[in-house]
């Protein structure tokens, strides 16, 4: 099956290219600033934020991986690195002998509590302050529409 590619129009390509450039530049700057401010990686921050915001400090391993949309192997390596540094701990799941809970330790809580205010200040400075509330609302609707569309598409 050799279908002819549906190339992007110049307008579609411009929209895609600017979106990718903005996203990569924003994430790159936020990641570098997070490391400078807290010595934490973006992955550390994502895991700790997920645990403390959504999970009450404790989540099943697979639920945590799903919440950040990571493969099990990536989550496993990340958790191992964070456990070595004392930011998280693994606890056996009593109702599932093969399952694990990932728990934010007191050091993990301190790390996210120190990093989050600085991180949100950078998000505001680099992203939120560049847009009006109406533009933010539109971006949120567009983002949700794309996410919903992707859920309906095969991987």
UniProtKB/TrEMBL annotation:
Matching PROSITE patterns: HTH_MARR_2 (PS50995)
InterPro entries registered for this protein in UniProt: HTH_MarR-typ (IPR000835), MarR/SlyA-like (IPR039422), WH-like_DNA-bd_sf (IPR036388), WH_DNA-bd_sf (IPR036390)
Sample GO molecular function, one term: DNA-binding transcription factor activity
Record-annotated HTH marR-type domain positions: 1-148
Pfam families, per database record: MarR
Gene3D superfamilies: Winged helix-like DNA-binding domain superfamily/Winged helix DNA-binding domain
GO biological process, one term: response to stress
Protein name: Transcriptional regulator, MarR family
